[in-house]
Amino acid sequence: MNNTLLVNIFGLMIGLTSFQSAAHFPLMSCHLAQDQVICEAGYSDGSTAVGYDVNMYDYDDNLVAKVTTDKRSIAQFTHPNADFYLVFDAGHENPVEVDVVELKPR
Known about the structure:
With 106 residues, the chain is of the alpha+beta class. The chain contains one helix and seven strands.
C-alpha cells in the first residue's frame, strides 16, 4: 500500500471514532419524595441537562405541568394524584418517557 492510502484510511478511522465518541443520548431518572415527583435529566456521556423542559402529561396526552431543569439538572413536580407520564425531549430522535408506575419512593 502506498502512504497516501494509509493516511486516508487512518484519517477515516479517527473520524469515525470521534463521531461515535461524541454521540450521546438523553437520560432521566425519577422518584417520589412525599408529595413530590423529582427527576434528574442528563446525557449518557455524563453531561448535565440544565435549562431543559420536562413535561408531565395525563394518559389522555393533556399537558398537566411543565418544569425547566435547574442548575443541577433537576425537575420537580407536585404529584397530581392521578396517572401521568413525564417526557424529557432534548431535541434528539427519541425523547425519554417515564411512566408513573415506574416511580419508586426514595
